Amino acid sequence: MAENRLGQKLVAPAVILMLLVAGYPMFQAIYLSLYRYRLTTPGDRSFVGLSNYRVALTDSLFWRDTWNTVVIMVVTVAIELVIGFVFAMVMHRIMIARGLMRTAILIPYGIVTVVSAFAWQFAFSLNNGWVNSWFHWLPWIGPETNWFGDHWHAMFAIMASEIWKTTPFMSLLLLAGLSQVSEDMLEAAQVDGATWWQRLYKVILPNMRAAIMVAVLFRALDAFRIFDNIYIMTSGAQNTESSSFLTYRQTIQQMQLGMGSALSVLLFLAVLLIAFLIVRLFRVDLASARGEAR
Amino acid sequence: MHVPRRSRGVTRFPGGRSVRRLSATFAALATAAALLSACSSSGKTTLVWYINPDTGGQAVIAKSCSTDQYTIKTQVLPTDAGQQRVQLARRLAAGDSGIDLMSIDPAYTAEFAAANFVVPVPQSVEAQLPHAFKGAVTASTWNNHLVVAPFWSNVQALWYRKSFAQKAGLDMSKPVTWDQIITAAADHGGTVGVQANKYEGYVVWINALVMGAGGNIVTNPGAGVNANIDINSQAGVTAANIINKLAHSKAAEPDLSVSNEGTVLAPFATSAGAFQVNWTFIYQNYSSDKTTLNDMGWAMYPESVAGKPSRPPYGGIGIGVSSTSNHIADDWKAVECITSPQNQGQYAVSSGNMPSSAAGYQFPALQKAYPASLLQLFQKSVNAAGPRPLSPYWSDISGAIQSTWHPADSVTSSTPASSQTFIQQVLEGKKLL
């Protein structure tokens, strides 16, 4: 009991600090979202209740941007999971130049997102990009393919840059899970005559479920908040806006602090919903994922 | 962990004294920096002037306008006018006293004035400023007060190839209409260069067409969100019809939907070059291309309706004094110097952006650098210019127009009605932009 109380006292400063740095802005955002408030016309500020939420939720622009965000999240996380797993296996099993290989795989993750977005923008550029000249042999790519000229081409370019940048992070998280899979179990399965695929599906993946959940959760939440790549590569042109980009435009460009705050709150709720769904989907206790339940 | 102990048994971190010394140094530096932000090392006041990017003309003026009492230091804003607005507004809303003077675009002058981000020009200072053109004064006035000092005034003119006009049989000594130039260009293998990308420049064109037809996008813009949106009018339909005609004609340039001031320059210099509407500074652009320069003519901006004088687009920069500045008296002295006729003329020579006053046009080097007829046209155009509505919500109105009028080939006679509804919904907070 006394130990419990001591524990509470010890964490109290951290909790207070968290409330100050995280709680205050959150409550401020909720408060502002109930107002019609524009930074450059403070005199016109008025209380509008839940009107900002109603406007956002009934606006086609909001749903179009939400759809874009969901598409980016689902596609990028799915592809990153597969490629990231391959990378994790390589990093786990490789015998020669292990350090070099791990470093090489992790390099994209060490690059600032804005820089990588610029690099990919140049790569997909119609005038001087290498994508068109290297891949013109593919039937759907030609020297005149304008990657930023229509919606799906632009979305493809944005997603490619996101996948390239964050797959190493996924592989790093999966590598941690892979190293937790008992070699004894794998050997036992092998002795019992399990093929490589059977070992993967029956031993490795079930034992990595917690790590996969953490990796998918982290990356899904990250991908749902995608902003930098879109800002640099298209600035939202060709209907490539994400939810974060819409929130940015309302809050920063249009200085509509009320509507921007409402969109921020909706974004936060969406992130909570995604986290809840992923935790339910994988049926994994977060505490066990961290090894606390043992 | 090994922790070194002192003789009196007090546990200390290694180097504790140096940490304290370092903290004290940082505190002293921070205080000094705060003081230095207002005063330079010589004890002189420093006035910080946030400028739009240029070729260095404003920095030269800042240097020449610095006195024994104060030094004017320039800080360059982003290239995009929208980003300039965002950066300045965020700083000013937060009460940043590090801004003294600002080069302000007419698109957000009213917004800054309504938010009290700028100090209205005092009568005593206004009396000292050069007498500005009517268009420049209108674009710099909010609530009947001059809120920025007009510095330079850009205006659009109709630039044409003399040989093409001759081939098409157009008499360019008289005012021409949009219909005439589009038809002439389409019939004789030429193009008409305009700005129709999804950006402010496209709204500048639309505004000029509407005003040229005798209408206004917004009447009583001072009413803020309650302003009357009048784009759905006969003038709005006339503007939409002109855009529709060009967009579906052979006279349209292939990159019409992404065209801007820069993209129309090159086609004008080719064999298909016929007409373009563009700002004053493009004259310098062709100075090294003698073939184009010798064949280039200029005329008043085209009329939307035959017989009704056109209202050329107005652009430019006014110098505003920040309401959060700590040196407002010095700021006004600096403004008087920056906007002097001599500096306006000098800046026009170096940048191609024309003076906001007739006195500025008297600068000898400027008169030498440009043909007299062109300088006369610029002055006549600024006086006739139709500035964009001076609304604090102009960025919303402009954004809503861009959303509904872009791309140009989608514009029909029903566009004004749909855009009016959308603008009103955006202003009322019922639609996201």
Explain this structure to me?
The complex is a heterodimer of chains A (294) and B (433). With 294 residues, chain A is an all-alpha fold. Chain A has one domain (34-289): Orthogonal Bundle (MetI-like fold), CATH 1.10.3720. Helix content of chain A is 72%, strand content 1%. Chain A has helices at 2-32, 51-57, 60-93, 98-110, 113-123, 130-134, 151-178, 183-191, 196-207, 209-224, 228-233, 243-253, 257-282, 286-289, and strands spanning 35-36, 46-47. In chain A, helix 3 (60-93) crosses helix 7 (151-178), helix 5 crosses helix 7 (151-178) and helix 8 runs antiparallel to helix 9 (196-207). Chain B is α/β, with parallel strands linked by helices. Chain B folds into 2 domains: 45-153 and 314-384, Periplasmic binding protein-like II (D-Maltodextrin-Binding Protein, domain 2), CATH 3.40.190; 155-313 and 390-427, D-Maltodextrin-Binding Protein, domain 2 (3-Layer(aba) Sandwich). Chain B is built from 19 helices and 12 strands. In chain B, strands 1, 2, 3, 6, 7, 10, 11 and 12 form an 8-stranded mixed beta sheet that branches. In chain B, strands 4-5 form a two-stranded antiparallel sheet. A two-stranded antiparallel ribbon of chain B has the order 8-9. The longest helix of chain B has 21 residues, at 16-36. Chain B starts with 15 loop residues before the first helix and ends in a 6-residue tail after the last helix. Classes of the chains: A mainly alpha (294), B alpha/beta (433). Chain A binds chain B through residues 36, 39-42, 44, 48, 51-52, 55-56, 59, 61-62, 237, 246, 249-250, 252-255, 259, and chain B through 82, 86, 89-90, 93, 111-112, 114-115, 117, 198, 224-225, 392-393, 395-396, 399, 429-433.
